[in-house]
Amino acid sequence: MRTTSLIRRFNLARFFQGDAPSPAPWRLNRRNVYILPTRQGIFFGVTLAVILLGAINYSNSLGYFLTFLLGSIALVGLLHTYRNLLQLQLRVATINPAFAGGEVSVPVVLENPGPTPRYRLAIAFADQPPVICELPPGRHTTVTLHKPAGMRGWQPVGRFTLGSTFPLGLFRAWSHVVPDEQYLVYPAPATGAGLPQASRYMASLLGDQGVGSDDFAGLRGYRGGDSLKHIHWKALAREQGLLTKQFGGDRSERLWLDWRMLAGMDPESRLSRLCRWVLEAEQQGLEYGLWLPDQILEPGHGPQHRQQCLRALALFG
Amino acid sequence: MLGFRSLSRPPLANGLLLLAILLVILPHLPHLPIWLALAGLLAIGWRLLHDTGRVPLPGRLVRTGLVVLAILALLATYRTLVGREAGSALLLLMLTLKLFEMRSWRDVTVVVFLGFFVMVTAFLFSQSLLMGIYTLGVVTLLVASMISFQLPAQPFARQPLLRDLRLGSRLLLQALPVALILFLLFPRIPGPLWGLPEDATTGRTGLSDEMAPGRISRLADSNAVAFRVQFDGPVPAPEQRYWRGPILWQYNDNKWQTRPHQIRLLQQFDLRFQGQPVDYQVTLEPHNRQWLFALDMPATLPDNAQVNSEYQLLARRRIDEAYRYPMRSYPDYQLDPQVLAERARYLSLPANTSPRSRELVAELAAKTDSASELVEAVLDYFADQPFYYTREPPLLFDDPVDEFVFETRRGYCEHYASAFTVMMRQAEIPARVVTGYYGGEMNPLADYMIVRQSNAHAWSEVWLEGRGWVRIDPTSVIPPSRVELDADLASRQPEVRSQLDAQRSWLQKSLRQAGFVWDALDNRWQQWVIGYNRSQQNALLKALGLDDINWRTLIMLLFIGIGVALLVIAAVLFRPTPRSAPGNRAARLYRRFLRKLARRGWQKAPGETPARFCRRVAYQQPGVADAVTHITRHYLQLRYAPLNGDQYRRHLKSLRRAVRRFSL
Amino acid sequence: MDTPVKPDTRPLHQAIARLGEIIVGKQEAIQLAVTCLLARGHLLIEDQPGVGKTTLAHAVAAVMGLQYQRIQFTSDLLPADILGVSIFEQATSRFTFHPGPIFAQLILADEVNRATPKTQSALLEAMEERQVTMEGQTRPLPEPFFVIATQNPTYQIGTFSLPESQLDRFLIRLELGYPDADAERALLSGVDRRDMLEHLSPVLTPDDLLVYQQAVSRIHVSDGLLDYLQAIIALSRELPEIASGLSPRAGLALLRAARARALLADRDHVLPDDLQAVLPGVVTHRLRPATGESGHVVERLVQQLLDVPIP
Questions:
Q1: B449 SS3 class
Q2: Fewest C-beta in 10 Å: which of A151, B34, C35, C264?
Q3: To 10 degrees, what angle do helices B160-185 and A61-85 make?
Q4: A9 and A113 share a domain?
């Protein structure tokens, strides 16, 4: 009975990998915080052993005392290191999509519900430089971690590590955090590919509803402040009341970014190219639509449209 | 791995570390060669200037050169690299040179750990109470600088240095109880584990195993404590405070010596005691000899002690740590009153020793009938003739006794004891020189006597038929008018002290008083901390009711002790909730009320106001509506309304009563 | 003047009841509007045309006995049209100041987002400073001074939405919304609201209002409440979803509104309930979500602020 619970509590896979992904918020407790001496800690132990041998050899009471004092400071320091992590809470805030081959920024909200300040917390994905922060009691902070974005599509955030060697650097306490959040990776934008020349105009099925000044779009009741130029004088003359003319339009070109235009390339390269086109078209302020074998996005523009297009590309296939 | 390789806060943290290193080096300064002391201070200064951005650090080539140069210089100074002096100098040198290449967190660690080493070597020179207190301070600084290097440059504390010091001292304070348990219970292995270097211990004594009056023109004077004595009963009178030490009986080449000790059994002496015994404990400072000291005349032997043919107490081992032993002495005694074994050895004198004094003795002997009358006559001679007591006597050359008795007539105890003993032997009276300490002053605050090295004394013992060995102190017959002492030295001579006491100013008196307080503390320190050894550990365990435990049990006990201490500290550190603000009793009562409700499934959401929660509960559980409303109303008043003291008390009382009575 | 510590609030409640008769089914909005008035703040109503913004303003003026002016903001409205203008008079050969519509106790600034930013800021400055400075001469605005501004939803054309930095000049922002079925029925079957307004007699005098406004500043705020307020503000600054948290001015606004709310509830101290009641109205127009989108996000954020544990 006891052994099983011990095995459950201390299991090598958890020790090295952390727990299975778990929903937010992640709380640090006695079960998921580990602690081991650092290289300095081992060096310190050796130093103490040598001092102790000297004290024994010379029957030097103060030598004994210093050894024991330093040893006790290390032990108490261990408790402090452990406490520095305990009770902390973590959650991953909304992650902005990234492009394949780039870096993804993972905002992690750290909360210290405890009554003591937390010093020198280091958070990092494996093989990435750590982000260092401090947390006064009862406060939150958001740190942004970076890691390679990985492949196109939904990607798990993966394991990152929260560690601390405060106060003496002799011990390192850490916890592996595996949040179950995911982030979206857009295809890598292809380089050096200009917008397609063969753009085709295609009338919108829904007609024009936008705001602009070119095309007459309709009439509505007059409101104070409406420009005099837009008052429908003829209607006034016909005693139909004060009406204001509404205009829309302002669009000159619509671009279809079409999967079929890239025949002969492998799917990922096609997606890459389309991704670049979407970015370009948005940047040039064009109306653009996206044609994919499994999805068609009507022409439009603006951040939301761009996001929809990129999302479709990311999740294609 | 999340290692912190770079130094993130160099100037400030380095400053703290440099201060700590300076304090580590400071106690070593008195015994370091001047060049090394200067080099150490220079290195610290250099590093400080570097950190404030003024000078570069020496390059690799220069550093290597410095190391070689310094080691050569060390070898030239000490001719060795091991041993107390050379070893600590070497460590200090390493520490100093490491300051020049302190770049990474790893280097800092090395510097701090070397600092600990150098600190320990200082204990080989002094283990005083002052040193102990000093150590605590330095350790705090070293720990604080370790913390400083851990913390980033922009901490949320306004004064990071102060914060680090506070954290460091808190760590130290929390560690102290654990350290104490370790100190008391860690099995004490009697050293040495390997051979001690020649200069291992600090012990020095004002006594030696030979005495050559006239060869040294100035008596070394040391205020150091030789031993301390705690009396069980009344303190013996000043004239009885003769602390018996090495006995010198062989006179050769104008010097007194003791031959290799011949160990005897206590039973081999014919000892007769009268009157009341004096019981006491002696705490002897380490002096690196086997000598033990006791009042004339010791009647018992401490554990592990022996007695030699001259009835001198000897420990079986050199006293290299403070040693405390119980003693019983009788001031009124007779030693070998009937038969004197080896009579010849106490009469032997080289041929042609002091012919003039031989004449004088013969002259005096003619005038007296018995040996004891002759002793009186010789003492009278010293008293009547213009003999002076001085601690800076002229040098004596060919025949020190004759030159002293008939020409210079100026000397200290050694001169008188030596001359008197020689004269006794010339009169065929067996005699020997006894060295030891005379006097000792009571610490008026702590009820024990301090005997200092400056109390070292020499006197004679003569063997008289029927009376045995009788103590004769020829120095004591010199009248005070012929004592030449400077005030400081005189103050330590018991006979002069009373005269001086009247002349002291209040400042001197209070300084003296403070000195006594400090010595009392130091005495405790020496007895209980520095002198803590295996036997004291056993005594402590016995007092705790743990008799005869082996080291395995001891280690188990040690682990349990540390475990309990750490658990207590952890319990305090990991306290789950913050303590509520003082006076915030209403909130505490309300939380209790919430817990009662929560047990029945009524959970208040964190953002739910008390009033809203109250309405929710009252609506769904009309039975308790009144009570819940009552409690909530009082709580809201206490927490949010402006109340005077009286209203506050009234509401609090109602709330307390209501919460206590409340049940679902 | 010897003001009682706690004024008689019965007339105030009477006034609120009277307002409720005219604006049916909008109890919460009326409460907030009166709270805003008591806290010496200004009110921003943001909603579709025709839901009763004007009626509310008019009714408040009538019930409180306030001198009322309505300014319809249009794109060609000039600052002078609001503040007033100095005109050279032949008879006296002097410039005389003709005060604009702003010199009234209650201003209804209709559709402020239709005016140019220049005109908007003239209004907002006057609101903030409670005085008008023209041609080097400073003229104080009457007391009490209360602006109810209305704003059409920003997606309508021809509008200049108020910049965020200006928005927090308004203490409270509220949306009226459509009336529920019962209220709608009452509205349709009842007497024309405009007629009711005309027959409305004041319940309060401007002096009464001033007394109430002074009483608001004497409402007690305990340390416990400040702790709670600070926790809310701190969270708003820490949530990653919020681009910029609540400013110190927003904190003061919250406190002022909560005090007024406590007075309305006949209490001499502020409770967390007061804070929560005014929180959405006070903060929604001051929070800017980190992501471009708004609407539901802000609502969710406000809910998060409401969920801050009460210490």
A1: strand
A2: B34
A3: 120
A4: yes
Residues B139, A63: C-beta atoms closer than 8 Å: no
Cα–Cα distance, B551 to B534 (Å, whole number): 11
Chain B touched by C226 (CB under 8 Å): no
Residues of each domain in chain C carrying CATH 3.40.50.300 = 1-217
Shared domain check, A261 and A145: no
The conformation of residue B474, written as its DSSP 8-state character, comes to: G
Window from A176-180, B148-152, B590-594, C16-20 with minimum mean pLDDT: B148-152
CATH class of the domain defined by C219-311: mainly alpha
* 3-class SS letters over B172-221: HHHHHHHHHHHHHHCCCCCCCCCCCCCCCCCCCCCCCCEECCCCCCCCCC
Instruction: Using alpha carbons only, give the angle B404, B407, B413 rounded to the nearest 5 degrees.
Output: 25
Residue pLDDT, tens place only, C250-260: 899 999 999 99
Q: Does A35 touch chain B (CB under 8 A)?
A: no
B497: its two tokens? 């002290």
Contact A124 B167 (CB under 8 A): no
- Closest CB to A62: pick one of B530, B562, B578: B530
Is A238 within a domain? no
Q: What CA–CA distance (Å, rounded) separates B123 from B121?
A: 5
Portion of chain B with pLDDT greater than 90, in percent: 15
More confident residue, A206 or A255: A255
Can you tell me the distance from the alpha carbon of C92 to that of C103, in angstroms, rounded to the nearest whole number? 24
Picking from A146, A161, A186, the residue at the C-terminal end of a domain is A186
Instruction: Give me the mean pLDDT over the B122-139 stretch.
Output: 89
Closest CA to A225 of C79, C115, C69, C83: C115
What stretches of chain A show up as alpha helix (H) in DSSP? 2-9, 12-17, 39-57, 61-85, 233-237, 267-283, 303-314
A264-268, B429-433, B436-440, B528-532 — which is least confidently predicted? B528-532
Q: Which residues of B are catalytic?
A: 413, 457, 473
Last residue in a domain, options A134, A151, A186: A186
Q: Quick check: C269 contacting B, CB < 8 Å?
A: yes
Contact A140 C238 (CB under 8 A): yes
β-pair partners for B435: B458
What is the average pLDDT value for chain B, to the nearest integer?
82
pLDDT of residue B278: 92
Token couple for B191: 């050293």
B contact chains, 3+ CB pairs < 8 A: A, C
Taking the CA of residue B573 and the nearest CA in chain C, the distance in Å comes to 23
pLDDT tens for C183-213 read 777 777 777 777 777 777 888 888 888 888 8
Closest Cβ opposite residue B191 in set A58, A62, A137: A58
How many structural domains comprise chain A?
2
The whole domain housing A276 covers: 187-201+253-317
Q: Are residues A177 and A47 both part of a single domain?
A: yes
ipTM of the complex: 0.84
Q: Which residue has the tokens 């006990």?
A: B557
Does some domain include residue A147? Answer: yes
Judgement on whether residues A86 and A109 belong to the same structural domain of the protein? yes
Helix (H, G, I), strand (E, B) or coil at B451: strand
A148/A3 same-domain check: yes
A191 and A157 inside one domain:
no
What CA–CA distance (Å, rounded) separates B306 from B327?
A: 13
Stretch(es) of chain C classified as CATH 1.10.8.80: 219-311
pLDDT value for A201: 45
Whether residues A159 and A268 fall in one domain: no
Query: Residue A302 domain-assigned?
Result: yes
Residues A167 and A310 in one domain: no
Q: Summarize pLDDT for B438-466 with one digit per residue, the tens.
A: 888 887 777 788 888 878 888 999 999 88
Class of domain C1-217: alpha beta
Query: Which residues of chain C have a pLDDT value below 70?
Result: 1-6, 153-159, 165, 290-296
